[in-house]
Amino acid sequence: MGENRDYITHPDEKGSVNISEEVIAVIAATAALETEGVAALSAGLDLGELLGKKNLAKGVKLTVEGENLRVDVWLTVRMGVSVNKVGRKVQEAVASAVESATGFTVREVNVHVIGVNLKK
Fold first, then answer.
1. Mind listing the domains of the chain with CATH numbers?
2. Cβ proximity of 89 and 36 under 8 Å
């Protein structure tokens, strides 16, 4: 994720707060999954998932630029929803969740809709 950094540092007057990029990706993934119309997150073929390991941040890529973040989310939507509306809601939910949990600025959230879930 990001620039091969494990932590993002947020300086504070009493020291600093170091937040794992994995934690931020999980926050973003959770916000996206809780958005109405999202069926699942997907990162394509995931070897870890094939081996029975769960990756809670699957489908999310985080790019760090100083204290600004860019989040890319790959997902499938439910059949019958407005893809554009769901995409905008995911952008809002991810940015809000990450900013409120970390204090970092989310510069952009790019939503990549890669499929439609046909199950009702």
1. 7-117 (3.30.70.1350)
2. yes
